[in-house]
Amino acid sequence: MTKDQLTEADRAEALPELLAAGWTMAEDRDALQRRFAFKDFRAAFGWMTQVALLAEKFNHHPEWSNTYNRVEITLTSHDVGGLSQRDVTFARKIDAIATGK
Amino acid sequence: MTKDQLTEADRAEALPELLAAGWTMAEDRDALQRRFAFKDFRAAFGWMTQVALLAEKFNHHPEWSNTYNRVEITLTSHDVGGLSQRDVTFARKIDAIATGK
Questions:
Q1: Of B56, B65, B67, the CB nearest to A41
Q2: CA proximity to B68, closest of A4, A55, A29
Q3: EC class of this enzyme (chains A, B) (predicted)?
Q4: Which domains does chain B have, with CATH numbers?
Q5: How confident is the model at residue A4, as a pLDDT?
Q6: CA A53, CA B100: separation in Å to the nearest integer?
Q7: Is the separation of the CB atoms in B63 and A65 below 8 Å?
């Protein structure tokens, strides 16, 4: 197990807060997903750009899709085959950007 | 029919060039799709940003998804229920950006 793979204890501590915030567990793999809706494309892509800069800074990248004002994002850590602490941290940062914090 | 919906003559004129360039017709609807691969996330998102600026300028937006260096893009015109001249123009511009022209 790599050092940042989520243990059961990590999951019990971190996931309830994210699930309460609107994240869901992917059905087919160990990943977190969330859908966001913005005012329009400009707002959606502006948010994506902020997330992209974070992703590049931390070298941890999302899987995501966008149609006009909607974005669906999936977080997982390919190198550990599932969720890691990086995904938890990234999810919290993504929420913070979305809510302007 | 709205004024920019593609006629059969338009399709015969415009689509062969796009299909030869790497675009495909979607299986389930009247839309053009293409997959691009870049060096890395930075290159992929840089290209997406250029496409997003074009999209906003012309008020015609793609459906797209990104995973690291890969982008899948779908073009269709929701207001005409299928392909329009805007999609053909947009596809050509997208190709031009991808190849640095």
A1: B56
A2: A55
A3: lyase
A4: 31-98 (3.30.1360.20)
A5: 84
A6: 22
A7: yes
CA atoms lying within 13 Å on the CB side of residue A94: 30
CA distance B99 to chain A (A): 22
* Structure tokens given for A91: 């999810």
For the segment A31-68, what is each residue's pLDDT rounded down to a tens digit? Answer: 999 999 999 999 999 999 999 999 999 999 999 999 99
Contact residues on chain B for A67, CB-CB shorter than 8 A: 61, 63
Using a CB–CB cutoff of 8 Å, tell me whether B69 touches chain A: no
pLDDT digits (tens, 9 = 90+) for A17-41: 999 999 999 999 999 999 999 999 9
- Give pLDDT tens digits for B83-100: 999 999 999 999 998 776
- What three-state secondary structure class fits B2? coil
C-alpha to C-alpha distance for B3 and B100, rounded to whole angstroms:
31
> Nearest C-alpha of chain B: how many angstroms from A3?
23
How many angstroms separate the Cα of A34 from the Cα of each of A26, A94, B31, B79? 9, 10, 26, 27
H or E element that contains A31: none
